[in-house]
Design a protein that fits this description.
This protein is of the alpha+beta class. It is built from 4 helices and 10 strands. The strands form 2 sheets. Strands 2, 3, 4, 5, 6, 7 and 8 form a 7-stranded antiparallel β-sheet that branches. β4 and β5 form a beta hairpin. The protein starts with a helix and ends with a strand.
């Protein structure tokens, strides 16, 4: 009888793990879209200058939406592009990204951001592919070094546990959910 009970318990745990669900010994910690936006607001501006010929600046942090599109992070931003020292031209960018956890930094970062559209009245249609490539490089640089959420050493008990036992991360509408495993 004990072997049968142990096998049932093992089968249940394997089922939870295989389906990416929080098991009976797992806990979930989440953080909201507003917490992510607040972290980005603290990150400040970014300017990239390419030898005085061209510069890109992101004067304010991008706006993000969690879970739009489903399972991804939506990004929208206004970037100013300046050529040969002229005033910047506003360019509106929308895109998407995933999310990853960096165990060394104990922080979450947007992963592989991609610009889906790059629009400006001053940008010729034939220039859009080149602008999209450049904008992709800019937003990748921006998000590579700026965490969207950091687990605090002096946080609540769940955050302290998450610093050591993080198993998976998923994006839901309006929040990111991290699953913590007991083992």
């Amino acid at each position: 009888m004990k072997i049968r009970t142990a096998l049932c318990l093992l089968a249940t745990l394997v089922s939870y793990a295989a389906n990416g669900l929080a098991g009976p010994l797992d806990r979930e910690v989440s953080f909201s879209e507003s917490q992510v936006q607040s972290a980005l607001a603290k990150s400040g501006a970014l300017t990239k200058n390419y030898g005085g010929l061209m510069s890109f600046s992101l004067a304010e942090p991008p706006h993000i939406t969690l879970g739009t599109p489903e399972g991804r992070v939506g990004i929208s931003a206004r970037i100013h592009v300046a050529l040969l020292g002229n005033p910047g031209i506003p360019v509106d960018v929308t895109g998407t990204a995933g999310i990853r956890y960096d165990d060394n930094a104990k922080a979450f970062f947007l992963e592989n951001p991609v610009a889906d559209s790059v629009e400006s009245q001053a940008l010729a249609k034939e220039s859009e592919p080149a602008a999209r490539r450049t904008v992709n490089a800019l937003i990748s640089t921006y998000f590579r070094s700026k965490p969207v959420y950091t687990l605090r050493e002096n946080g609540n008990a769940q955050e302290i546990a998450a610093r050591w036992l993080l198993r998976s991360v998923r994006i839901e509408p309006g929040r990111v959910v991290a699953t913590l495993s007991a083992f």
